[in-house]
Amino acid sequence: MRIFTDYYNDFKCKCGDCRRVCCGGWGITVSDAEYFRLLGLDCPPDLRSSLDVALAPVDDPSPERYAMMKPSYTGKCRLINGEGLCSLQIACGEEVLPAVCRMYPRSFTDAHAGCSASCERVVEMLMRDVPLSFSSPLPEPASTYVKALQNREKPLKERIKELLPVVFGHGYTYLHFGLLAMYTGVMAEASERFDEIVYKDFCGYGRDRDGEERLYGDIASFDSRFPEAGLWYENLIVNRMFITDFPSADIKAALCGIVCEYALLRFASAKCETEEQFVDKVSELYRFIGHTNFNKNSAAAINRAGAYSAEGLSALCEV
Fold first, then answer.
1. Domain definitions of the chain by residue range
2. What is the three-class DSSP state of 30?
């Protein structure tokens, strides 16, 4: 039986009101059937000209991943018009869109139906006091872990830390700032995208005592501006647990992913002064978290830092 998030049926695309269109900066691929259908599509001449330069077969095509939408020099899809709307959908209807364009940001399988927080509208829907709920009880062990994370008698970081000792062995005690520096540095080595959206900002603080104090000061200022943000973090984390069918095959990597997700959310939002800035930073972060092998990569990075233990991961939750 498919389980739905409580917001799923209420989701509506912001269309031209979106500050950053969903396809901006991403390599959107289409199947061979979609590629040839679009090449032969009967459409207005100006749209035909755009389509002819917007699609190109990839270097190693497969039936499922045959061609890519080539962005313009602005980094946006060539089919997005000046109002931020899809000219293909306007001219020919939603039914002609490639599957990824019709479905995003929805995550829809036989087991679940939710949405990715890489979409700013989804982030806005999760910025609320009410805990995320579902149309039916979640299967175990996801149900137990979600209930633990939604137990608001303790701060979120304490709820996360309490999940770790059952699965992880013990190790050394770490300092949050130093471990965050090591983790983000290793992730940046492996991903240019992570370097761009996270690590460059971290390097702006420096890696000395002054940088540590400034980061903690920014986080404290954010917490004073948005005392309800802990509830937003909770909903964002539970949402990703749901759409990734937590814990999947590897409970340790999944828990490590939760810890790293929380740490990056705290860091990414530190300098946000408005809710709009928070939405923009968080949705950008989830464009990396939600669309890469985040849990596996984070586990490898934390292991390389020597902190793949209850104590090590707890250190990332400290601020």
1. 23-103, 118-316
2. strand
